[in-house]
Each structure stands twice: as C-alpha cells, then as structure tokens.
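STRUCTURE REQUEST FORM
Protein name: Ribosomal RNA small subunit methyltransferase E
Source organism: Candidatus Nomurabacteria bacterium GW2011_GWB1_44_12
Requested output: structure tokens
Priority: standard
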Amino acid sequence: MRLHRFFVEEKIPATGLPATANSSKEEVERWQAGEFSVTNETLLNQWRNVLRMEEGDKAVLFSGDGYESLCEFVSLTGKIAKKSAVLKVLETKRGLVTTREVALYIALIKKDNFELVLEKATELGVSHIIPVQADRSEKKGVNYERAEKILREASEQSGRATVPAISEVIDVEKIPNDVVVFDPRGEISAREFFSKHTTAPVSVFIGPEGGFTDAEIDSFHARNIPIVSTGTQILRAETAAIVALALALVK
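Status: completed
Returned output:
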C-alpha cells in the first residue's frame, strides 16, 4: 500500500539538530531516540479525523530540505496527544530533488489560473516562483497563505522532497536581465533554445492574460533579454507556463 506523504515544518531528527537551543530535557531525549512532535492542527485533524490513523501506522514526512523520512506514529490519540503527535523516524533517505534550478517569473493572472500554475509548476519541479505585476495584469496581489498551502500539497502529491519558494510581487521593470521571455513574437523557438541550454540554472518569464504590451517587448529587446516562442498559437498564460517549465525541466 502506498504510504501517505506529508510536509511538516518541524525539523526531523535524522536531518538536523533540535529546532531550539532551549529544548527541554525530555525533548532532547526524545530527539536522540529519533522521535519528534508535530503540532500543526490541520495535520493533526487530517491524521486523526480524516485518515483515521493510529499508533503504529506509518507515513513519509519531509521538511523541504531534500530528504524524506519513513516515520511511525508513537502517540496520536488520547489525552497526551490532543495538541501534538509524536513520531519515530525509522529510515531517512535522499528524496526526489530536481537537478536543475528553474525560477518561474509569472505575471499576475486570474486567481484560479494562478493557483493552477502554482500546482503544476510544483509538480514539474520549479525551484522558485516570482509573481510579477505586468502592464496587463488583472490580479493585484497574492494570497500567500493559500499559495503556500498549494505548494506544500503539490509537493506532497508529486513525491518531491522540496517545496518551491514564492517571493513578494515585483514590478515588470524589476525582472533581471537573465530571464527568458516566452511570447509568440519570439524569433527563436523555445524548443531550440532549451535544446542548447540543458543543465544550467534558468529563469523563465510568462506574461499575463492579453500578453505583454509592445512597450514591454521593446524594453526586453533594449535589455537584450531573449524572447522565445512556442509557435504561432496563442497560448493561455497558465498553458504557456506549463509548456515553458516542461521544456526546461522534463528530459
């Protein structure tokens, strides 16, 4: 049976030192024994009331550092465990980590489409997501609590052992010169570009609904930012993001 995977904010014993220097004697002893506590109320509710997990059940946990641990529930129900669960690490191994650093600069788009990009970008292996306020962006901000939840859940589902970082929104003028812009007006095909650049870190920039303005394209040209095309078809912003990341990451 396939084990459930969960992201936890707590450090896992086999991958580091205790989270705080003022840990109690009991916490230190538990840590040395390979045990640790999880206090996230959402996770506790999911384990107890949704999945009906019990002491002795096993799950795979990861904290985003590239490792994952097979853990056993030591304490999950009853008076002691009302606000925490105690797990014991049985095995730790290197998890699934993409071999190429890819940052996605994505213009702010409609909420549902933006969330779809977050989910699919995580599944494909993106390292970093940077929302951008472009001239034609309709959306004016990011719900970071919601976004980070989507990133965590997509990491759990896809089997990766890291969670992408998401940055504060920047203006289009602030994008770096080393991005690769995706736009139908590009003079080189995206496939050709990525066939020549296969392993080095790369940043891709996807425009908003309605695409980049002529002024933005002129600005990219003036800064010698490469513009690549996926063909003559006009792709939706969320589709273009998935295509771009697939070209950069899927080998």
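Reviewer notes: The domain at 5-94 is CATH 2.40.240.20 (Ribosomal Protein L25; Chain P). Helices lie at 25-32, 41-50, 111-124, 144-158, 190-196, 214-222, 237-249.
Form closed.
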